[in-house]
Amino acid sequence: MSVSSFGSVPLQKIHSFALSVFTTALYLPKQESEVPEAAEKATYFIGEGSNLLPLGDLSPLLSTRYLKGYSLIREDAEYVETEVAAGENWDAWVRYALSQGWYGIENLAAIPGSVGAAVVQNIGAYGVEIAPFVVGVYGWHKSLKNWQWIPAEHCQFAYRHSIFHEPAWRDRFLITRVRLRLRKYFAPVTDYSDVRAKMNPKFIHDPWYIYQLIRSIRTNKLPIRGSAGSFFKNPLLTPSQLNQLREKAPNIPAYETPEGLYKVPAAWLIDQAGLKGYKRNGAQVYPRQPLVLVNTGTATPEDIYQLALHVQSVVREKWGVLLEPEVRILPPAATGE
Ligand code: EPU
User: Fold this and answer.
1) Which ligand 1 atom is the nearest neighbour of the CA of 291?
2) Is any ligand 1 atom within 6 A of the Cβ of residue 107?
3) In the CATH scheme, what architecture does the domain 2-63 have?
């Protein structure tokens, strides 16, 4: 196992906000047998660091980024089941799956981060979430000191949520492998408005066309570096909360969820509060997608954090809606740790 330690390990290249922060030790297991010892020593478990805001120098970290590999579990005429190591890059895996003729996840093209983190966060984009493709996950339970298989039914998947976010599991259970069930037939999902607006119907039966289309929609909107994607979640409102909001914002779009709640776009609330492009030192509300906060190159952790608090308080004051961070905020290590 690689261990970078002894004082100060720079984390600028280990997380996508690219802030100048350090840790006392970074554990990088390359195989499952190295996980228990590394997990014991690490305070935080991370993947590629694409959904993190470190507020300063951090306690020891374990990153799964070197846990690599995948295997075919079973297949029939319609489906294939594969097991993918948590440290595989998500987008590279999507491309590999497409190259094998395995479909379903192409709308999740170009989402930064690792396969393990994709499950923890239940990544979703352009009308598709990872949850329905997950059969289960395998990993090490640090407190119980055993390996466990957690079937998808126990993962409590919801919008940008899984059980692995809960305090009893976060930094306690390290996913090392994810079992996915993909389709061998291609069924394009094109109901998302951006996809419908940009697609050429002539090509929608070509999975690589959909992959490239999603990739280009994303890259037109999202910064290439210096962010953690959407900083906040889209709020889920009850019907009465939506009615209250509509008194102030009659034109806000809202999408009903199967649970009878209404998802409203946080980007709209931030945009219509006049915050698009708003800057605090090196931190900015990204002009092309205001749900994203970006380090323009010189931001400190405090700049990003204060900007997030500002966005939250302006939106709350103007619209009466509390935006919850989607990004994981890591507190600095206590001095001397
Ligand atoms: N909008 C504005 N102004 C803007 C941009 C957007 O008002 O400048 C409004 C529009 O009404 C637009 C709506 O916001 O229709 C939604 O915008 P968009 O399609 O960009 O999606 P989003 O809801 O802001 C979510 C995910 C993204 C994902 C996209 C596409 C969350 C927290 N974010 O963003 O995920 O790529 O949908 O499906 O659910 C991420 O999690 O890091 C991420 C980028």
Assistant:
1) 24
2) no
3) 2-Layer Sandwich (3.30)
Tell me, yes or no, if the two domains 2-63 and 70-183 fold the same way.
no
Q: Which residues of the chain have pLDDT under 70?
A: 1-7, 335-337
3-state SS string over 86-115?
Answer: CCCEHHHHHHHHHHHCCECCHHHCCCCCEH
3-state helix, strand, coil in the chain (%, to 5): 30, 25, 45
Ligand 1 atom closest to 290 (CA)? 8
Check if 126 has its Cβ closer than 6 Å to any atom of ligand 1: yes
pLDDT in tens, 299-332: 999 999 999 999 999 999 999 999 999 999 999 9
Shortest-distance Cα residue to atom 41 of ligand 1: 230
What are the residue boundaries of the structural domains of the chain, listed by start? 2-63, 70-183, 227-325
Q: What is the CATH number of domain 70-183?
A: 3.30.465.10
Residue nearest to atom 36 of ligand 1 (CA): 125
The model's pLDDT over 165-188, given as tens digits with 9 standing for 90+, comes to 999 999 999 999 999 999 999 999
By CB atoms closer than 10 A (0-12, 13-18, 19+), residue 336 is exposed
CATH number of 227-325: 3.90.78.10
> Is residue 162 in contact with ligand 1, taking CB distance under 6 Å?
no
228 alpha carbon to ligand 1 midpoint, in Å? 14
